[in-house]
Fold each of these.
Amino acid sequence: MKKYIVAPSILTANFLELKSDLDKLKKAKIKWIHYDVMDYNFVPNLSFGPKILSDIVNNYDFKMDLHLMVKIVGFSVEDYLKPFIQKNVKQVTMHYEALNKKQLIDFIKFCKKNNINASLSINPNTEINKIKKYLPNLQNILVMSVNPGFGGQSFIKKSLDKIRLLNEIRNTNNYQYLIQVDGGINEDTYKSVQEAGVDMIVAGSYLVDSKIKNLEERISKLEG
């Protein structure tokens, strides 16, 4: 039976109690943390930067899955990303919609140079054919099942068609990328993304909330 990678998003954490939330995830044997970076440019919100990332990786052994919802302006891709390339950063995702063609190619090259998974994300209104030519050079595709920028949104069902299509393209061409989904994952939606063909599931409020009493049970469901 297939096992799924689960990456809790700490975007929904109470930042005054972030250590407590991370301790709970560690106790529940979580291996990956999804780290959302937002710039109030590509998305209308602000979140973490390199400093909080440094504090986490210097105190925990989580594999870090960085999701950069940002536009790179006034920097080279390399100069912008360098501060984020820290211990245990295993994967970096950038948005297709936020990059020009040169930046996208530079991003893939940067990840290869630093031995990090190059991951490309697409928004709910972006079709798969927009990124098709990049698929052979990517290690992960992140399908946004909500509009990026805020936690706690409802799952957009048409995202399942994208996951199925990415799975079909992968199987047909023997590509090696993983398929990841982010947004609206909860008790009502997790099975549908598993059945559609994802490999990695990001969940925010379903896993990171001080009121949760059955965290291990929820993680077990997502893992399959």
Note: The chain has a mean pLDDT of 96.
Amino acid sequence: MFSDEDSEISFTVKFLGRVEVVCPDGLQMLEEALESLKTPDAYSTEKKGKKSKVCLFLSLSGLDILEYKTKFLLYSCPLSTVSFCAVLPTFPEVFGFVARHPAANTYHCYMFQSKKFSHVLVSVIGDAFQVSKREESVRGGRDLIVESLRHKNKVLQKENAELKKKLTGQTN
């Protein structure tokens, strides 16, 4: 499924938010993160309570969260930093993953909502994580952040080419 370096899967989901967490895994951590997102916090800089539509891009490089309309990159999480991913049993349409911040020794939980694809997404993220671990050991530990940037560059080049085609089609 992910044998080609250019392989990617994208889903449109609702982004519930990102919360700093103390533990890298566990369903309880996801439940606490969801509760935290529901409760306004005067000290937090993260937006809470607003569900925004995003594109969740998954590749062997990692998980990228892009704003739906503008395709602006909100967050990028290399798969090597992801420590846990699951669907909440109490809310089957809600899923999340925990990732280590690349520059700090902290973990963040990213929460999403998808009425139809929560279980599929968690399964696919798990599969990509397993393949990524195998490929990383085969490749000798390639720098996943550089790979993520290369991937993003390819996506933007493809989008740019499509926009150029549309533009030249309108001027002829």
Note: The mean pLDDT is 79.
